[in-house]
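Take a sample.
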Amino acid sequence: MPSYFATIHFYNEKYSYLPDATVGEKIRKIRLIKNMSQEELCSKSGIRRGTLDTFEFNEAYPSPITLIRIAKALNEPIEYFFDNYYKFVFIQSEILKKWRNKNKLSIRSAAKVLDINEKTLWQWENNICYMNRVTYEKVKHIILNE
């Protein structure tokens, strides 16, 4: 019987042609390399099959919490799946506070600059909730000077 590593090597070569530019493509590729069915990944991560399909085919993105569960189920470091949004959102509190301090902005004035609710900004800065991808795309040029 082949070893676990020999099996992984076989599937790694078998699926090496698959793209892995997006979070969804990375999830699908790693799942296939590990010879894991969608049902098995869903069972281990606690997500529904239809939801996994939307991720793997780039129709939706997993929330940061869901991505953590998927990474654990696949036994992969969370950083493997990071794109610029996830790199930001996992340290959003630090980035937002640094941006506000650098620009000498209160929560109220920073919220106005970003065109968001003050309470929402306070929640992001205190890691109560994560900024969603749509908002990130809207405000990243302001916060990150892109």
